[in-house]
Amino acid sequence: MRTEGVLAGLDPEQRTAVTAPAGPVCILAGAGTGKTRAITHRIAYRTLSGEISPRHVLAVTFTARAAAEMRARLTALGTAGVQARTFHAAALRQVRYFAPRLLEGRQMPELMESKVRVVGLAAAKAGLRTDRAAARDLAGEIEWAKSSLVEPGEYLVAAAKAMREPPFEPARVAEVFAAYESLKRRQGVIDFEDMLRAAVWGIEEHPDVAEQIRAQYRHFVVDEYQDVNPLQQRLLGAWLGGRDDLTVVGDASQTIYSFTGATSAYLIDFPRQRRDAVVVRLVRDYRSTPQVVGLANAVIRQARGTEAKLRLELVGQRPPGPEPELKIFPDEPGEAVAVARRCRELIAAGTPASEIAVLFRTNAQSEAYEEALAEAEVPYVVRGAERFFERAEVRQAMVALRAAVRSVPGETPLVEAVVEALAATGWNRSQPPPGGAAREQWEALAALVTLAEEYAAEPEILPIGEAGRIQRDVSLSTFNDELARRAEQQHAPTVAGVTLASLHSAKGLEWDAVFLVGLADGTLPTTYAKTAEQLEEERRLLYVGVTRARHLLWLSYGQSRAPGGRARRPCRFLPQLERSTSRERTPVDGSRKPDRRPIRVSSCRICGATLLAGADRKLGRCPTCPSDLDEDLHERLQVWRASTAAELKVPAYVVFTDATLVAVAERRPTGPAELLAIAGIGPRKLGQYGDAVFALVAGASPDDLAPKNFGN
């Protein structure tokens, strides 16, 4: 393929990135703007033109999947031989190759797949009792420290400066960190951060190794540059050795892994650190409809902080699609049932199940959707986490609940019995623990309590003949049977199905239809986000979720976690859901319009969801809920509207819009209050047309209504 073929089909900004001269190039690429296309075509253009050799290129990304995709695209472009690897894979390859020289003939130490086992031993040595979740959190904290180039003796100061919330007292974490490093040395093993450090050490301390590596790799490309951590940046600097043939691509608005040590600072500072850098902004979004793009822009436009300096305003390139569906439900179970029903409808209408995703803030939220989809007979797959009932803490809790049947008095209310049984395992309802994994485990058990609340709140009433009715047994024993039923149902094998995933694990993926659920303050943003920086990262999480959708986007939350529970506020990052204090409302298209009028909240008369779109409020139902249109009345209303408009010499819509006619034909108002309940009809139109509408609803013919009865 000649260079002309490589340039064919590129938009002007992509072409600028591809043809930029050798040297530092920074591509700021918004979601769906073709960043992989830009960097692979840049490599192909430079190699096919003879400017560089493929074997001298190292392209680095963060996942094996992304690296494989890059290699496949480069091969299709006629550029074989380029090394496209993750940071870890590239470092491992180099350390293994140079190990005999660096280690004076000794073999490279074994690479641990996981820190958790050794961290657990280190914690015990430091006098800390930990379960697996606490060990995972300690391992995560040690990984952050090592990725941030922090040594055990420096941890206390570094953690305080970074405002970390470690799972134990910082001084105890520092002890575990030191013990972990000592145990590794004694066992002759290394972790992934050690391997990256070994690669850095090999280059920085061994001139012959540095010379050989730098002779091999002369041109560098780094994907997702907003996700690099200080250790990876140190390795990149060692590879470069002061040279500047570096292309980086990233999007500061998709920085969502700072808790692991990743920082967008290197992307933000790139133009300042390299004054001659070419900076290209890719803003044409080829993934999503203009409606989805408009919402994404509206969400991120409110961003503050350093990342907001590189905020991109995306421009949708696809044909128009449906407006995002914004729904509020009385509670989370109702939300899950509605989502499952809509998924089933989409699949029945021809959308492949694999092109639908339900995305949430934490993995603990998946249970309600696993259950609802299973009940609706919709296949699903859980990405990046175990199914709810397969999690170790849930299995252990179910064992404890079964054992509690023998020890808890039979008259104990169900929810109280469940809380008491879980407390015996060390779970404390009022004290969520610090640390991500421990918190996730706590929330999974809290979800079991929520299930108990639902089970107890809506007992089924069974008829027992003429004598009366009897309430269903809601004892701990029957609740255990219900949990067993759910677990068995959700263990059924699935093939390609609706994806259930957390927002973090959804990054880099896309679907035709995306359901963003649980958008309530306290869930998104999480209650654990306290600083301005943490809250901004939560906003970016929502932005990432919105930009996963190609065509259909549903956003929703339950006003309470369980039926009858405490009401919650909607996610503060959604301009469409702002209510009480804002003097401006930001529509889906992202434009700002003053609106001081109170917003009347109405609910679907069929499913109960809160209606936010004007046409939906007018109809009094969701567009997906079944219509009960009186077709004869609708036809008579149309005839009446036409004659009325002709008499008044105005367009027909000035009398009533099409949506208003449908609403009247569906709701059939018989009095002023019922007519005024239809959105868009006020006292003026009631006075003008009310009598005629009531007559038509009662069965009158348009011919029977004289013009003088229409009002003027």
TrEMBL record:
A Gene Ontology cellular-component term: cytosol
GO terms, biological process: recombinational repair
InterPro entries: DExx_box_DNA_helicase_dom_sf, DNA_helicase_UvrD-like_C, DNA_helicase_UvrD/REP, HRDC-like_sf, HRDC_dom, HRDC_dom_sf, P-loop_NTPase, UvrD-like_ATP-bd
EC number(s) on file: 5.6.2.4
Keyword hit for Transmembrane helix: no
Protein's name in the database: DNA 3'-5' helicase
Domain HRDC, first and last residues per copy: 627-707
Family: Belongs to the helicase family. UvrD subfamily.
Catalyzed reactions per annotation: Couples ATP hydrolysis with the unwinding of duplex DNA by translocating in the 3'-5' direction; ATP + H2O = ADP + phosphate + H(+)
GO MF term set: 3'-5' DNA helicase activity; ATP binding; DNA binding; hydrolase activity
Residue span(s) of domain UvrD-like helicase ATP-binding: 8-289
Basic and acidic residues: bias regions: 580-597
